[in-house]
Amino acid sequence: MTKSTDPANSNDHVGGVDEVTPLLGVPDTAGGKATEANGQPNGQPNGHLNGNIDKKTGQVDEPPPDKDEDTPLPVGQILALCYASLVEPVAYFSIFPYIQEMVEKTGGQQPQNVGFFTGLIEALFSLVQMLLMIFYGRLSDRLGRKPVLIFSLTGVAGASALFGLSRNLWQMVLFRCVAGLFAGSSVTIRAMLSENCTKYTQARAFSWYMFARNLGIFIGPLIGGGLSNASQQYPIFERVQFFIDYPYALPSFVTGVFCLSTAVVGFFVLNETLKGKVAGSGPAGPPMTIRELLRAPGVGYVLLIYGHCQFLALCYTAVNPVFLYTPIELGGTGFSPQRISIWIILAGGSQALWMLLAFPTLQRRTSTGTVLRTCAIGWAVVMALYPLLNEMLRAHLEALFWPTALISIVGGSGVAMSFACVQLNINDISPSPTSLGTLNAVALTINSAIRAVAPVAATSLYATGVRYHILHGHLAWVFIVAFAVLFNFSVRLLPEKAEGRLVKKSDARSEEES
Asked: What percent of the chain has pLDDT over 70?
């Protein structure tokens, strides 16, 4: 069986996925190793990832079946990277159960202004991260993945521990910015994941990774909601003046210790994967420029879909806890921090199960594009349920509220598979192996820019709707539902190359013989 020689259409190996891998030249590796042959990385002429070009036919010969398909996944390294990946969601989501209360009581803000300042604090983390992501990518290209990862994990641990000591709003802003200053771990983690897997192991590796990320969404609120106001929740702390003066210090300290533990594990367990920093490896080829990359076939469409998905998800993530905290008469559910914690924990746990158990099978049996289009429909349906939840509580229909709430939690968790889909789309559309890092840098820039704008825009819109009683306080949900409907049109632009239909070599040979 033969393949086309167009290098823009060959991408059998895996690069870093998701929004945070701004490495300017992720090498083409299998299990973290690479070979040189015929003057090209991995023995692949002209940037091809498979086989050799037949001089007579001009076509690429099918590589041996054991090239990538039989390369085992380094489970120990992947698990260590998954543990390190817990840091960002734990540090980010641990404040969600109590940040509204902290802004109101410690920050001295009126209830109608809570949504705005909550979104501001969340957005600043991403804004600072966006400004430094290329720096972390280049630094890890120069010094190696491992030292940059350990440095970043340690910095986030310190900043997270200090957040609970804030005495006013501006100290909250400062410590959140410091956390963003060190938030380069996800950059390196995704690069190291890509350098440890192949096309045939990527779905499994990244389903584990997404499971870990969603486990972090579970652990973060558990720490935040379970340990905030410790002097009121636990008799053992009721006479401890420190926790009376600093009601949010304990969850911050525990978050910091947890993040520090990932740095310790990474220091002792992880191996360096950067080509040139590994004994016996050669240099990687030069990547395409950003302009060349953006002009490559299909790349612009995939980045558009990726950005739309991230914008939709981040708007929902920012508005959801504020909606849960807002009093019923103003358009929310009036939940306590503990109930908010339980809600987010259930959502995070459900997402983890969807990603670990359902996504690999669905992606393998259908395609990445099919799963993505199904999730797009789900987004519109689930987002439309949230204003209905408030209307049910206004009408005292609690018996109807709880089943609908469960559907929104489980359904909202299922559509989170779209995150993994767009990450794999980024891999599949990459024009060449040496462009994977640059493409992920562009995706990360888009995501970080959205993360800097979407939370504050969405929560400000929500606060405006609540303050002026626009549409019963559901103004933000109307816009989110509209964006979810538009997402169904965006996913129709997905190029065929990014569909992610996985056909094993043995299956392809069987079809050819028949």
From this structure: 79
